[in-house]
Every structure is written in C-alpha cells, then in structure tokens.
Amino acid sequence: MLSRPAPTRADALALFGATGDLAKKKIFPALYRLTEAGRLEMPVVGVAASEWSDVRFQAHARESIEVAIPDMDPSVFDRLAARLSLVGGNYEDRRTFKKLAGKLKAAGAERPAHYLAIPPALF
Fold first, then answer.
1. Distance between CA 113 and CA 13 in Å, rounded?
2. What does pTM read for this prediction?
3. Residue 42 has what pLDDT?
4. Buried-exposed string 31-51: b where 16+ CB fall within 10 A, e elsewhere
5. Which of 33, 34, 35, 48 could be cross-linked to 39 through a Cys-Cys bond (beta carbons 3.0 to 4.6 Å apart)?
6. φ, ψ at 46 (rounded to 5°)
7. pLDDT averages per 10-residue partition of the chain, 123 residues
8. What share of the chain is helix, strand, coil (3-state, %, to 5)?
9. Coil, helix or strand for 38?
10. Which whole-number Å values give the CA distances from 110 to 47, 65, 84, 101, in the listed order?
C-alpha cells in the first residue's frame, strides 16, 4: 500500500478581489462566521486594485458584515479585523505580488491559500 504524506494546512489566506462585490456579499460574512466558530486562525491578506489602508479595508469588511449579519458581535469582528490587511496594486504588475509576498512573510506565512474573487478575464 502506498503511503501518502500528511496534508499540510494553509497558514494564511490571500484573497484576490478583496474590495469587490463577491468579497463584500459572501466572503466577509463567511470569514466572520469562521471567526465566530473559532475556525479562522490565520492572517487574511486582501489583494485589490484599491489603494486602501488596512483600517479602511477593515471598515469595508465591517460594513459588509453588518449588512449580512445584523446581530454581529463586535468582539468577534475585532478578532477578524486583527487578521485583515490589504495589498493594493495592479494584478499585472510584479510589484503587487512582491508586496503580497512581503506581507505574507511578515505574517510568518509559508503556505498561503489563494482565493480568486476576480473576473475570469483577470485569471
């Protein structure tokens, strides 16, 4: 019988399209619920064309969660917000990916999962 290596777990989430509609309507509420359940234990680094500060990005996430989850617990959101940061830049520019790599490295991430919430034309 062949032995398979143990699966490795992701240690960060790189979320492309982090300021877009899919993230706003679906992904942020899901990340909130994962945080609420104690299942999100990693940094979430958004990547978007928007050149927002981390504070502005966190406020955007909060606004979308408040719409989707009217009884949002502020302490759960605070735990999620502490994990959220943003890299702004063009997806066709290598510097964007260098900034992302630097932010992931600073967070201690070695095995990030990548989620592409972007239009197919940008893949």
1. 5
2. 0.91
3. 97
4. bbbbbbeeebebbbbbbbeee
5. 34
6. -80, 150
7. 78 97 97 98 96 97 97 98 97 96 96 93 77
8. 45, 15, 40
9. coil
10. 17, 28, 17, 10
Separation of alpha carbons 49 and 75, rounded Å: 29
Q: What's the N-to-C CA distance of the chain in angstroms?
A: 38
Token pair for residue 13? 């989430």
Only one residue has tokens 């989707």, namely: 68
What residue type is 92 in one-letter code?
E
Q: What does the block give as tokens for 97?
A: 């990916």
Q: What is the pLDDT of residue 41?
A: 94
In eight-state DSSP terms, residue 118 is: S
Rg (CA), the chain: 15
Token duo for residue 32? 């909130």
* CA distances to 2, 19, 105 from 111, in Å: 25, 23, 10
* String of DSSP letters for 4-40: -PPPPPPSEEEEETTTSHHIIIIIHHHHHHHHHTT--
